[in-house]
């Protein structure tokens, strides 16, 4: 199946509030203490993210950082729309308003189901260099319909599609300063990303702040899901959705990529979305750690300058966004 013509898709764009990294550092250094026993937030030079333990396709996160939300759960639920296949390279180029820039695209979404002939989770992680070189460290997680086991596959350089929905950080991938967030032993009820997001929301209110990047679950386990094959019957409620999803406790280390925003910005946005992959065969949609007493997180984030909404569903709903 071919991807949709990117030029025919509706793109909506808004500027985000962009406080300094130092300001966000101070907000999180105070706010995260209500969620974790140990909190350390710094502004640092971005490490080389192509190296272990990150295994990203690009070295850094800087250079016109843009948050891109593609499609949405209404294209999956209650009934799947299999026509919703998007090319991440052309979507990213249009979002950046430039076809001649090198860029990275990292984040969470539905995987390219034609590649494995099944619905799957996508962990998108690629670098594009003009005029047409793609280096992909992307992965997908697919469920066996017979025994519910999960397998994680590397996505080849030749496959740049995502399906149905996606939350992607697009940037030039340059070195530079980033926000480093390290937390140990969760004492609150919210997951790592929700803890960050609600701290920022409480401070900035109606001013929309967005972050994108990568975090490591360094120790412990996380509750994650992997979608089943596309449902033959409509999924209309959260209860039906949870019966269709497959939940697992997956062990560290897990490499999570995705985005968060503090408000929907009148664009019907998903507030947070991170997917994980690993070097040990586990991966999926991150929900929360299940080992709060021993969990350790380390994340590197950049502040998004803009949010670009791609192919926003006309008929929408609010379930399936956890």
From TrEMBL:
Its main location: nucleus. Residues 27-310 form the DUF1907 domain. Keywords: Hydrolase, Metal-binding, Nucleus, Zinc. InterPro entries: C11orf54_DUF1907. The keyword Zinc applies. It is found in: Nucleus. GO terms for cellular component: nucleus. GO terms for molecular function: hydrolase activity, acting on ester bonds; zinc ion binding. Monomer. This is AGAP006729-PA-like protein.
